Input
Amino acid sequence: MKKIHSAHPLRIFWISALLTILIGAYTTHQMGIAGLWVFIVLLILEVTFSFDNAVINSKILERMSPFWQRLFLTVGIIFAVFIIRFILPIVIVMISSGLGFTGVIDMALNDSKTYAEVLHKAAPMINAFGGTFLVMIGLNYFLDRQKDLHWLGRLERWLSKFGQYESFKILVMLCVAMILYMTVEERYHSTVLAASIIGAILHIGLDLFGKYFGSKQSGKKQLVGMAAFASFVYLDVLDASFSLDGVIGAFAISTNVLLIMAGLGAGALWVRSLTVYLVRAKTLGKYQYLEHGAHWAILALGIIMLVKLYHVEPPEWFTGSVGLIFIATAIISSILESRLSLQKSSQK
Output
């Protein structure tokens, strides 16, 4: 009999598959084949955007106890679908439009076109916050001086040298915030500056929070208690940084808020299941450069979000493809490196 934490795909993905089929069937019943097609497109969009997110999540999740892993799949998915993909955009529209919560809910359900327009107007705030947060994640990884495995040789080794200076990444992001403030449209000056600083503060705060409680469990293989909670919060904030840009992009495909929530929510289910699969299949151990590729993808996505502040709008297929290209290349590099190592060892 297989163990409950088996890495078999059927054990991990069956819930996501079942819920996707049920949501898809309900969507077809309510909106016909056209609605089902949009639902599938949105699901694929979400998974494509968040594949690198799943890789980063798996690195953090593998250190958490089975209890917190289950919490990530249960309570975490409720947070991801309902709070991040429905409530958070509504809060952002409230801030942008000055309307109350019930007014925005009514707009979202009964005047989705206006809701989409207001959310698009809030894009600078979302891109400044999300872009800063994601860029800091990339910098934090590549500025690690203790990291001795480098994928892009000289470049990663050069970046790791700056890891000896604790304040270097803070200096970089403060400079980025000031450059954004001075170069974006004047009407967005204060919004972009505040959002980018909040993104940096949130990343630094969560990093310190995790390190403080993590240091108390340095001898333990798995994180529990407040250390696990800090990682859990970090995963949800990371998910928010990825998903908000996807929510805005989804309105280019459909203005039906419930359909968008269904498609992106189903995609979030698959991303969460994929994260658990990567942990249990020990994928990061099999492909040594996979984590590097995922962080380059996150860094690229963060830069794309910041570039959008200047009205440069890359197509959704391009933004999603960047992450997949980095990850696919990292996997191929890992396989080739592994084969090369085996050949060298066999020749000795």
